[in-house]
Amino acid sequence: MSFTSMHWGAYRPQVVDGKLEAMVPAEWDPDPSPIGASIPDALTSPTRILRPAVRRSYLAEPGSHPELRGQEPFVEVSWEVALDLVAGQLKRVKAEHGNQAIFGGSYGWGSAGRFHHAQSQLHRFLNLFGGYVFSMDSYSLGAGRVLMPHIVGNMDWLLAAHTSWKNLARHCELFVAFGGLPAKNAQTSPGGASEHLLSRALDEMSGAGVQFVNVSPLRDDLTGPKNIQWLPVRPGSDTALMMALAYVLVSEGLHNEDFVRRYTVGYETFRQYLLGHVDGQPKDPLWAQALTDIPEQQIIDLARRMASQRTLINVAYSLQRSVHGEQPFWMTVTLAALLGQIGLPGGGFGLGYGCMNNTGSGRKAFSGPRFSQGVNPVKAFIPVARVTDMLLTPGAPFDYNGKQLHYPDIRLVYWAGGNIFHHHQDLNRLLEAWKRPETIVVHEQFWTAQAKYSDIVLPATTALERNDIGSAASDRFMIAMHQAIEPVGESRDDYSILTDVSRRLGFSDAFTEGRDAEAWLRFTYDESRGRAQEHGIELPDFDSFWRDGLFEIDYPDNDTVLLKSFREDPHAHPLPTPSGRIEIFSERIASFGYADCPGHPVWLDKPLASFPLQLLSNQPKTRLHSQYDHGAYSRSSKIRQREPLTLNPADARARGLVDGDVVKVFNERGAFLAGVIVSDGIRPGVVQIATGAWFDPWVPGERHSLEKHGNPNMITADVGASSLSQGCSAQTASVEIVKWDQALPAVTAFEPPSMV
Question: Does residue 127 fall inside a structural domain?
Fold first, then answer.
């Protein structure tokens, strides 16, 4: 059996008589993800898109009746008709409005393969066509990605350089995890996760005597180690807790004054704020107790433990997906700087251990082959979480990272890879915005909401139906992804589709450079060999790699320690910040004049809650984002076909709820149905539901229709984290829940649309 690579693991596909029967996890993986079990049946389920399809009224008159997206039937057409239509609309929009009216909406999780990577394919195509409006950053890490270059360095560099789990097992004594270390998140990684690391890493650290503190509303955000203290913090208050810890360090003289003076800038300015000399409010443990619900003495005790032990402070991505989401990241770095252990084995800070598999692997950050996207002639862009704002308010100004920009006027959206009805917030608002473009084109494998709410749908192959190369930064293996089965239906890979469209538009020679897909695999692999050598990695020739099926990246001789060289000599190894040091106070950010993100870490009150329960919408266990929600593993987790929602026994008793009930979850933005799990592993006043249930409104296309399946983005707020990043703020949401006592509407999320 050959291999394939998915974002959640490496597998050996088992094929019998041309049919995929099973996905066998790679034999070396100590903790394989069960998501792979969903794939065989899902590939050929009724949800699969078999042929090109066009929305009925759009086929009759392109651009007509955009308000009917998601409501009217589709018409299956030939590839020739569909491709002619796509090419014609691209040509028309460019002629009438220019390339700045085209939005390339691909989001990069479509495939672990590096050539058949939908985002790269689409962006290369659109660049050669004259460019497109693009999106910056990510829903997962929008605030962090914008903030960190100002105060430490680029996020990709930092993630690749994180202290290894092996080093932490040897040297760390106390691991303080803000947002926990959820095992479900560590299943996945962009480009693949060939060997799952977290479970074994936690076992080794626990065996070495490392103590853990789980700072989270959810007890299960950190499980496995023997010694875990759970601090059930109020959602959104982590920054206040960190400040109180910092207050204890400074007021009791437990901080490392030498470190902050040599390696940071702006400490004194922050100190004045911390002690209350600026606003009259010391950020002491009593102040924090009222905001966090963590007792004053527990805060004091934890600060003293942190100062007396080799301590690693980690913050999960989820904390920055909130209003003022920059602050917990900034404060994590500041608190670690006060401890003075940055750059030492087993100490310092982490930004996302447990959020993706490969963080902390210790392996060289070699990412393998790349399909060149070229250069985009269009310079207009948006932060990725501002799609709805762009579509609803063309020409309106917006702030971003020190600049004031304007939203472009988008007439055509081209999307390949990703599902906006999963990622985006306030789906009722998105539904209105989604009516604005004249044309929406989608490449998709399955009838997701992204496909159902489009005009032209082109069926794409899955990773099992094409050859590719799986390769992820800091991963153990590069994988030769041999095609396992023939394409289902009339599906084609993105490269073939875009080649045919580019031929109609007159630039296929530039797009293909005379290569078919197999020639590109060989070319991109050979091109990557030089980059590999820069990391001390000698790749075999392509034929040997393809025959063997994989190549192992050696583990380095020396443990990785984040910012070790900077600590050893900050003059020889300065940070890529204006000062070359850690910026506790950033002159550059201060110069932007943003009240919602000033020049140093601050506590900013969250918006007043309109409803009694705080909603956490975190990453799912049974799928990646919304991928394979229609698969058996994800569907087996549903309660009466709805996504599960967890709440505390006290909140359940107050509402007359028991396990297995179905509830309506609602606020001023909308409502959805969910199945109930009652657990004492969640703090009172908080409810939790995973993201990724396929969008399934009772009345398709109708704003404020009840969502039947359990998609929390019906009711999350579509506002930017701050003027600095404009990152998503999904975790800042309040709701109420009531028992659903009516007949349950059927879940239709996985049914294809009507065809005529």
Answer: yes
As a whole number of angstroms, the distance between CA 101 and CA 378 comes to 10
Statement: residue 365 has pLDDT above 90: no
- Select from 526, 552, 578 the last residue of a domain: 552
User: E-assigned strands of 100-171?
Assistant: 102-104, 134-136
Whether residue 756 lies inside any domain: the answer is no
> Does 432 share its domain with 527?
yes
What's the Cα-to-Cα distance from 619 to each of 36, 202, 290, 697, 712, rounded to whole Å? 17, 20, 28, 21, 11
- Cα-atom radius of gyration of the chain, to the nearest Å? 25
Residues 391 and 521 reside in one and the same domain? yes
The DSSP output letter for 99 is: G
736 by DSSP, 3-state: which?
A: strand
How far apart (Å, rounded) are the C-alpha atoms in residues 117 and 106? 10
Amino acid at 179: G
Strand partners, 470: 113, 479
pTM beyond 0.90: yes
Same domain, 167 and 313: yes
Which among 582, 562, 535 is positioned nearest to 165, based on CA atoms?
A: 562
Catalytic residues: 107, 109
Same domain, 723 and 584: no
- Rounded CA gap, 695 and 700, in Å? 10
Mean pLDDT of 56-75: 97
Helix, strand, coil tally for the chain in percent (to 5): 35, 20, 45
Report the distance separating Cα 649 and Cα 78, nearest Å: 55
Ramachandran class of 463: left when φ > 0, alpha when ψ lies in -120 to 50, beta otherwise: alpha
- Say yes or no: 247 and 156 in one domain: yes
| Domain extent at residue 466 | 4-137+367-552
Kindly report the backbone phi and psi dihedral angles of residue 369, in degrees, each rounded to the nearest multiple of 5, phi listed first: -65, 150
Predicted confidence (pLDDT) per residue in 719-737, tens digit: 999 999 999 999 999 999 9
394 and 326 belong to one structural domain:
no
